[in-house]
Amino acid sequence: MENNMKEMNPILADFCGLLESNNVSYELNEHDENMMRFRTKLPHHDTAPYVLVHYNPKNSALSLALSRIALFSSVGPDLYQIVNEFNADPGNFACKMFIDKDGQIIVLTNAILKGEDTRDQVEDYLNICVLALDKYLGRILELINNNNNN
Predict the structure, then answer these.
(1) pTM (global) more than 0.70
(2) Fewer Cβ neighbours under 10 Å: the N or C end of the chain?
């Protein structure tokens, strides 16, 4: 980890320091020193999605995604309705939900980091994603339970 930390952009390195101070373990990408992942907890659900973070220092772009939330073997209109409502919700502050080709639900946000408190900005975007997902996960889990019962 020490070798990657020397090459890592200071913004992401600072965020790693925040994770370490909160005893959150993380993994760095072997091929990109500005990409990492860790698990987080949702406030109201017993789910611990992965958080994938990438920072591009060339344009100050942050990409943050929550993954491994739920897996669907088949996707129908009820799930698409939840996804559309999530994506239209202005309270989700530019977070977007989608279903990947394998049936995994992903929540993604992108931002340009500027100013002096960039670590706080990364933490804020993470919190926004977590709270947005937490708000809709109950409906998603209910849909899964209903599908399992049918």
Answers:
(1) yes
(2) C
